[in-house]
Design a protein that fits this description.
6-stranded mixed β-sheet; binds alpha-methylisocitric acid; 7-stranded mixed beta barrel; 27 strands; 19% strand
């Protein structure tokens, strides 16, 4: 039998189920990654589960999202996380160390291992030949407690890379090409596996760019082989002993195929406000911009900054442009300083920020109203930058920098600057001491969790009633993102450890009356189109509306992580039997679902009656019996506590 890399990774971690696409499988998890914006909830969940010490090989908690300390809330969360790391045996990456994904690749990721992360960009670690999946915090908490992670066996989508990237075209353009071809739902239910001779020209950090933004395709994850380039990368980061080879067998079969001839690519840009809205840069060139922004988990490598520094050396940033440089890890920043690149960037007019997520999730650096902002970040969902009427475009560092110099969208090939290919350094500054190692078990037991006033324990959740008769409070279009369901940004993120408070921001940008209306009824339904809940893993996008009484979402289809998050907190994700029924339902209609318990367990189609207008709709669920059990009990915490799930 010839296996792909993805199949080998799944097979070596399979604890239940068959590797048949669509079947539920359970996977053993070796490593976990949490970041502060989702991690506070994970640590509260570990407390609620009564865990003593994590059972994974390595669990790392990063502080990279909530870095703005405008008051006590974020620093309180940082200290809470430090105490929780000490208590539960978790590594702590302090503020300023950088973005979780590149830091994990540099310091902890290991080929052949599984990684579960409470961040949708966790698949970036697929660059090292890991099976790395993003999930809601509660599932990561369960993995830390030694439980398997359950998901549907994805189809494996082999993408053969041939040829070599032309000058001025880089890894970001490869993933933008995938998004141009397949759109934001093209990867649903799939793992993307890259292979072929074109890989030889892509460094491990280039592969990170592609694997990271596989999340924007809706893919379960992305994998690359662990080849000699991965060995070189680990050697450079003084971890060569962590390398094992992991290659697809010759003739490995893929469920689906695609091919990209790298030599045929050109600079691409995702226009506002979807990562799937991709065009060649030359077609939109000449439009004035306000901001150019480099960094983030989607372009974290040394090369991504060095290429920009070389382009601006001896030149000046355009007067109107804010050129924001967001280093991605402390060690990368040290190396860029050592090699003189930071001085070139600053001298040309760049604004240097601390290593972290920063403006990528609207934590500062918001663009001016209606002005174009060209960013190397992974997402440009409406309003995510912090400016409601934003116009964010996704580009490579080359396109961002060329545009920063000219003040208009610029195809870097037209800049008239000589091109220099920059290799990933073999001698980066390694600063592993900046990560605080877990305490010895006997010392850990003595640590008390430090909870500031903003840290509020999880609200209890009651079981699902047998029948529901509740109004539709909101009807939204296709591809609604979790940024629209529960915004990020400096106003909202500090409440990630406070569900009653953060619930007040639910669907704020979509319908500012939603929260008030939700409080006036005993429960409600939201109706959505295709790919409902694309984007982030933030379970707050399920918890906030659930706290306000959301009981079910009817949609044409769901994004993987969000539908799981709904189930995890006792909300029913139901799919229309006939997508045309979406058009029939109106905001305000009261829908009735009866005999829920029996029909969910038998898996039969449900009939939702529209009490207001005397119609009925067929809806169904695709939950496994384990998920049905959890949703009936009001979510995963109750499921574990009532002894249905394995106990810790
Ligand atoms: C994102 O890029 O959307 C985030 C912010 O990193 C999220 C996590 C979060 O909402 O905290 C993600 O990707 O899961």
């Amino acid at each position: 039998m010839s296996w792909s890399v993805a199949q080998k990774l799944i097979h070596s971690h399979l604890v239940s189920g068959e590797m048949r696409p669509g079947d539920e499988i359970g996977l053993h998890i070796d490593q976990t990654l949490t970041q502060d914006a989702t991690g506070t909830m994970v640590m509260l969940e570990l407390e609620a589960l009564g865990l003593d010490r994590v059972k994974t090989e390595i669990s790392v908690q990063y502080v990279d999202h909530n870095l703005i300390q405008a008051d006590y809330k974020n620093p309180d969360d940082h200290l809470f996380l430090l105490s929780a790391c000490r208590r539960f045996g978790v590594w702590y990456s302090r503020p300023g160390n950088g973005v979780s994904h590149p830091c994990h690749q540099e310091n902890f990721g290991k080929p052949g291992k599984t990684l579960l992360g409470s961040d949708s960009h966790t698949p970036a670690a697929g660059a090292l030949g890991m099976l790395a999946i993003g999930a809601g915090g509660i599932e990561v908490a369960l993995a830390m407690a030694g439980e398997p992670f359950f998901t549907r066996m994805p189809e494996i989508w082999g993408v053969e890379l041939t040829g070599e990237l032309p000058e001025w075209v880089s890894a970001k353009d490869i993933i933008l090409e995938m998004l141009r071809r397949h759109g934001v739902a093209g990867g649903l239910g799939r793992i993307v596996e890259y292979y072929g001779p074109g890989l030889d020209t892509l460094s491990a950090m280039d592969r990170h760019v592609i694997a990271n933004m596989g999340a924007e395709l809706g893919a379960t994850t992305t994998v690359f082989p662990s080849d000699l380039e991965v060995r070189r990368f680990l050697r450079a980061w003084k971890r060569e002993n962590d390398w094992v080879e992991l290659m697809a067998d010759p003739g490995a079969g893929y469920d689906l195929h695609d091919e990209i001839d790298l030599s045929s690519l050109e600079p691409l840009i995702a226009m506002p406000s979807s990562p799937g809205n991709v065009r060649p840069v030359r077609e939109v060139a000449g439009q004035p911009i306000y901001q150019a922004y480099i960094g983030s988990s989607a372009n974290p490598g040394f090369r991504d900054f060095a290429v920009s520094a070389m382009m601006v050396r001896g030149r000046r940033i355009h007067d109107r442009v804010s050129f924001d440089v967001n280093p991605t890890s402390r060690a990368q920043l040290e190396t860029l300083v050592r090699d003189g690149h930071v001085v070139d960037l600053i001298h040309a007019g760049a604004r240097l920020h601390q290593a972290g997520c920063n403006g990528c999730i609207g934590m500062g650096q918001a663009p001016a109203t209606h002005e174009l902002s060209l960013r190397t970040v992974p997402r440009n969902f409406p309003g995510r930058s912090g400016t409601r009427e934003d116009k964010v475009c996704l580009v490579s560092p080359e396109t961002a920098t060329a545009s920063a110099l000219t003040g208009v969208i610029t195809d870097p090939r037209t800049l008239g600057v000589p091109y220099m290919r920059i290799a990933d350094p073999d001698d980066p500054i390694v600063n592993r001491e900046a990560f605080l190692a877990p305490l010895a078990p006997e010392d850990a037991l003595r640590v008390a969790l430090r909870k500031g006033p903003n840290i509020v324990s999880l609200p209890a959740s009651e079981p699902l009633p047998d029948s529901l008769e509740v109004p539709v409070l909101l009807k939204v279009a296709d591809d609604i993102s979790t940024d629209e369901i529960m915004p990020a940004g400096n106003r909202v993120l500090p409440f990630r450890s406070n569900i009653p408070k953060i619930a007040e921001f639910s669907f704020e940008g979509v319908d500012p009356t939603y929260v008030t209306r939700a409080k006036q009824v005993p429960g409600h339904i939201v109706v959505g189109g295709d790919n409902y809940g694309q984007g982030s893993s933030r379970e707050h996008a399920a918890l906030g509306p659930r706290f306000l009484g959301l009981r079910a979402v009817f949609a044409k289809s769901f994004a993987r992580i969000h539908s799981q998050n709904l189930i995890n907190f006792g909300v029913l994700p139901l799919t229309f039997g006939d997508a045309a029924d979406y058009d029939d339902i109106r905001k305000g209609d009261v829908l009735r679902l009866s005999d829920l318990h029996r029909s969910l367990v038998t898996g039969e189609e449900l009939v939702a009656e529209n009490v207001t207008r005397g119609r009925s709709y067929r809806v169904h669920h695709s939950m496994s019996s384990r998920q049905v059990d959890a949703v009936l009990r009001g979510g995963l915490i109750n499921w574990v506590k009532t002894g249905a799930g394995h106990s810790t």
